[in-house]
Amino acid sequence: MNDLYRKLVDLYAGGELPAELESEMEAAARQDPALAQDMKSMKRTVWEIQSMPQPEFTEESYQRILMKVYAKGVALQTQSPVPSHLQYQLPMQG
């Protein structure tokens, strides 16, 4: 299998190659069964992953991940302000 084609299989599977290069890879795959198998299995894998439902990333998920990172001792500073439900509210004094 040509080393260049082997490196381009993932781009081929994702549909990210120009049409002429994609045609060239398909022509090379007719001569090389290993390349053809790699291209077919990678394309099937990409299709399967893209057909899966998107995971839901909520504010609760974000906070749970953030707390795990803090528990590991990472000093992380986000660009967004800390949500008010994580702050201790002090009583107003006059």
Task: Write down the overall geometry.
Answer: rod-shaped
What is the multimeric organization of the chains shown? single chain
Order of helices and strands: HHHH
Beta-strand proportion: under 5%
Can you describe this structure?
With 94 residues, the chain is an all-alpha fold. Helices cover 60% and strands 0% of the residues. The chain is built from four helices and no strands. Helix 1 packs parallel to helix 3 (33-51). The mean pLDDT is 86. The protein has a domain at 3-51. The longest helix has 19 residues, at 33-51.
What is this entry, summarized?
The protein is mainly α. The chain has helices spanning 3-13, 19-31, 33-51, 59-71. It has four helices and no strands.
What topology does this entry show?
Elements: H1 3-13, H2 19-31, H3 33-51, H4 59-71
What attributes characterize this protein structure?
single chain, 94 residues, mainly alpha, 0% strand
